[in-house]
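step=predict obj=Peptidyl-prolyl cis-trans isomerase B1 n=504
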Amino acid sequence: MEEAELGCSVCHERYDENRCPKNLGCGHAVCSLCVQQIINSGRKCPECRRPFYATTAAALPVNYPLLRLSRALASVNLQRGQSETPSPAPGPTRNQNDAGECAAHLARLTQRCMTCRVWVCRECLLMDHTLPPEGACRLLSVRQAINEMKKTHVETLAAKVLSLRELKASAATQGGCVEANRRIRNAVAATLQAAARAELDAVKELDTKKKEVEDKVAEIDVWMQGLREKESAIMQASTVRELATAALAARECVTTTEARAGRERERQARFVGTQLRLGSMDLRGSLQLAKTMYVAHEADDGQRWARLSVHDSLLHLHALQSSPPPASAPLFSFSSVRSLVARECALAFLELGWEGHSQGRVYLTMMGDSARARQFLQLCSGEAGPCYRGTCMFEAERVGGEGEIIRGGDYENNDGTGGAALVEGVATGGEHLHEAVSGLLVGAHSNQRHRLAVFGVILSPWSNHKTDTAFGAVTSGLATLRAAARHRPVTEVLVLDCGLMFPL
């Protein structure tokens, strides 16, 4: 076959990867660069003038036998030329413009399909990869692909480093909790001689846990350093081989780090406050040594403290406040004492006052473990932030008559217009339905979402009336509430103190 027959009949250039032969349907072929001109000028074969109907060059099939013959002839000519040219000195070659040879077509891999994530030669492109608008493939040169792959790998590693930073911060926070707990336990050990041995054992355990956390923080630093080293290796890669080697090492490092980070997250999830739980006998014995004790509560907004006192064989956990206790006061952790409050029928108290004096305490019990009850307890202890202490009784209705009621608890505006819910699921309905009797603790209806934390106490029975927001009852102090409802103005009645209770 003559060499001229392996060329385009229009431009007379020999077919190759850039000028692949396109079948026109009549048996003749034209190179891919000239066929678009023919389409634009009438879509007829330049040799037999037979029309064809393709509208784009990509729609015409490639004449692969003709393309292979052209490649074979080019290879023969190249071998002839090499036999006449002295061989170059041996040594390593490095081509930064391709990614090696295509195993399927024995052609150079000159591009990368970023959609299919494979290196492609010209023939791979023609057979399997279609560009928009007909297809969705996105092709980049070797150099562009390397740069984009570098960027992707670096972003992945940076995201992992950020994740590890957060993991490290979480571990460091746990270390801070352990250290704060350790200080509290040391104070207990120094003050309460009866419990000294148990508390010193707890200190030793906390020291061990603190060392464990510090070791974990250092270990996470090593993981982060490993990721940074892999990032540096990727950035220094200049060839496909170097990038592939660095990317493989990075993937293995990321996989290993993810497994280690997963185990660390499981460890942190299992991490619980290391305070020893206090039993009632511990508290009873401690109170014999110290008439007044305090608890410390660690929260996002800092540390707060609450006083413990005993009245009528009941331990009172007063509301948290920011003022620290005396240096000599025994300290326990808030959570260890709070856990002793019953979930069912929990007890709480409100201390009311006006005219500058305390007028008495009101003791209440919750009706089960409802969302309203949990919210009321949180606002009595102040553990969630807001607290009933310092608020006023903002309204008294039907004073002296049936269904007399006094209302308070607006921790936001202190006038009955606020007091949003702190707990999800506060609702009204059949489970709260109750006769309107004296001493019944009730809340706002669920359609008043802006004031679901306010409460009311019914002071006299209301015949033939029921309420669907009941969640507790007064056990003592109803006379104090009736006196408060008759005080004018009722807004001068303040909650001087509040808190939770449980029997010793």
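step=describe
The longest helix spans residues 142-191.
step=end
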